[in-house]
Design goal:
248 residues; mainly alpha; two-stranded parallel sheet; 2 strands
C-alpha cells in the first residue's frame, strides 16, 4: 500500500511507520531513511543496489573502463540473485549464507575499486559522484549479506508507483488534498501482485495498462458529487472590478 504526502519532510516517514517499528527498512538514499534508523533502535536500513549501479552506468561515457568494471561486478551479483530465484532458494537463512559466501570477496574488490577511483577523478565528475554515492551507502548496501529476506533493489516498488509520476499532468486535480490520496491507493492495490511476485522470486505479471491506475482512482473511486465538490465554483458574472472589455 502506498501513502501520499504533500511534502518530503522527514516527519512524514515517522508518521507513516510510527515510533514502535522494529526490523528492516529497505529504501533508497533519501536522507529520511538513515535518519529514522539512527533515531530508532532495532531498525536496519537496507539500501538499493539499482541506485548505486545506475550512477556508474551514467558514468560509462566518462570512464568506460573504470565504470564498466563496477557495472559488470554489480551485474554478477544480480546474476546470482536471478539464479537463486530460478532454483527456488528463498529461505532467508540459506539465502544469507549464499550471499556471504559468494559475495564477500567481490564486495571487497568493489569497495577497494571505489576508494581508488575516488582519488583519481574529480569529485564532481560523474564517476566521482558515483564512487561517493556507493561509499556513502556502503553499510546499508552490504547489509543484504546478513538479511536473506531482502530484495537486492527497490525496483519492484518503484516500477509500481512510476505511473503516478508519468501521468501527473493528466490527472492534475487528483494531486491535491483530498484528491491526492486515491491515486497511490489504487496503485497500491493494483500493484500489490507485482510486489508479491517479486518477493517470491517470480516475474511480476504484465500490466494491462501503464497509466491507468491513478486514472482509475480519480474517476472510479470517487462519485460525481465528490469530484464536483473539489472544483472551483463557476462565476455567473464577471467580477465587479472587471470592465466590459474584460480588462481589470
Amino acid at each position: 500500500m502506498f501513502e501520499w504526502q504533500e511534502t518530503r519532510s522527514h516527519a512524514c516517514l515517522t508518521e507513516l511507520i510510527g515510533d514502535d517499528y522494529r526490523g528492516l527498512l529497505q529504501a533508497d538514499g533519501y536522507a529520511a531513511y538513515p535518519a529514522y534508523e539512527r533515531a530508532h533502535d532495532g531498525v536496519t536500513w537496507v539500501a538499493c543496489w539499482a541506485h548505486a549501479r545506475r550512477k556508474f552506468f551514467e558514468a560509462l561515457e566518462e570512464g568506460p573502463e573504470q565504470a564498466g568494471f563496477v557495472v559488470e561486478l554489480i551485474g554478477s551479483l544480480y546474476a546470482d540473485e536471478r539464479r537463486w530465484d530460478e532454483t527456488g532458494i528463498n529461505n532467508p537463512a540459506e539465502r544469507a549464507a549464499l550471499r556471504q559466501a559468494e559475495w564477500t570477496p567481490r564486495l571487497n574488490w568493489l569497495r577497494r575499486a571505489a576508494l581508488g577511483l575516488r582519488q583519481d577523478v574529480l569529485p564532481k565528475s560523474r564517476l566521482g559522484l558515483a564512487c561517493q554515492y556507493l561509499l556513502n551507502q556502503w553499510v546499508p548496501l552490504a547489509a543484504h549479506l546478513q538479511h536473506g529476506q531482502t530484495r537486492f533493489d527497490n525496483n519492484a516498488a518503484e516500477n509500481t508507483i512510476r505511473p503516478t509520476k508519468l501521468g501527473m499532468k493528466n490527472w492534475l486535480l487528483q494531486w491535491r488534498p483530498p484528491g491526492g490520496h486515491p491515486p497511490p491507493l489504487a496503485c497500491g492495490r493494483a500493484g500489490a501482485r507485482h510486489l508479491r511476485a517479486a518477493a517470491l522470486g517470480h516475474r511480476p505479471p504484465r500490466r494491462r495498462t501503464t497509466l491507468g491506475y491513478p486514472l482509475l482512482a480519480g474517476h472510479l473511486l470517487q462519485t460525481p458529487r465528490q469530484r464536483s465538490a473539489r472544483l472551483p465554483a463557476r462565476r455567473a458574472h464577471p467580477p465587479a472590478h472587471y470592465d466590459q472589455s474584460g480588462k481589470s
